[in-house]
């Protein structure tokens, strides 16, 4: 039986001070991710969408508005990244690992100063899925544990913090996040340790 769905904010601030631009990280669902006014008020310039079954048209000024069956293309006022995990079983565990490095890359990219890259480096970031209760919770928990280990020495500590900040109630915890996503985050944490150890041996910053 599913837990009751409780009212909670469209987006929730989870942690501050993420390197290298002192960014704040938020979690939200569909309504938060599609509200560009809300994103602007919170200084959110990066959105990472975890959901395979949720697409948002972020193109604000299409370059080809009259192209018939062709999809709109153009720039958005945000940098938008799509991961595409399933809310439950079905996604390879390596997708959680990929999501970690997508989020890390979004925060650490140094963007070319050219007309075709109309973005600033850094900014606050929103990680979203459909309701901000499972896929985004598992990914952000993994990221907090690896990037702020002084605050979140274990994945469980990071998830507990997110549950509090996102107003996830105890009778929801069995699915916030879903157990298979929690397990994927645990395995990804171990893989990240191996990858980063190899990077250190190779002298990669």
Task: Report on the architecture of this protein.
With 205 residues, the protein is α/β, with parallel strands linked by helices. It has a single domain (11-202), classed as Protein-Tyrosine Phosphatase, Chain A, CATH 3.90.190. Helices cover 36% and strands 17% of the residues. The chain has six helices and five strands. It has helices at residues 30-33, 36-41, 94-108, 135-147, 155-165, 179-202; strands at residues 11-18, 23-28, 44-51, 79-85, 124-128. It has a five-stranded mixed β-sheet. Strand 1 and strand 2 (23-28) form a beta hairpin. The longest helix is centred in the last third of the chain and has 24 residues, at 179-202. It starts with 10 loop residues before the first strand and ends with a helix. The model has no long low-confidence stretch (mean pLDDT 94).
């Amino acid at each position: 039986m599913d837990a009751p769905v409780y009212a909670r904010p469209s987006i929730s601030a989870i942690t501050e001070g993420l390197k290298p631009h002192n960014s704040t990280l938020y979690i939200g669902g569909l309504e938060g991710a599609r509200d560009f006014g809300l994103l602007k008020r919170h200084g959110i310039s990066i959105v990472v969408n975890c959901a395979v079954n949720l697409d948002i048209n972020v193109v604000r000024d299409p370059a080809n508005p009259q192209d018939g069956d062709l999809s709109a293309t153009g720039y958005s006022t945000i940098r938008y990244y799509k991961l595409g995990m399933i809310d439950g079983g079905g996604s390879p565990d390596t997708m959680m690992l990929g999501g970690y490095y997508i989020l890390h890359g979004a925060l650490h990219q140094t963007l070319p100063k050219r007309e075709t890259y109309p973005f600033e480096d850094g900014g606050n970031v929103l990680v979203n899925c459909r309701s901000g209760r499972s896929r985004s919770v598992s990914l952000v928990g993994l990221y907090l544990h690896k990037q702020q280990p002084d605050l979140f020495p274990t994945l469980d500590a990071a998830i507990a913090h997110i549950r509090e900040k996102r107003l996830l109630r105890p009778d929801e915890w069995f699915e916030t996040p879903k157990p298979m996503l929690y397990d994927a985050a645990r395995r990804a944490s171990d893989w990240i340790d191996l990858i980063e150890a190899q990077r250190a041996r190779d002298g990669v910053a």
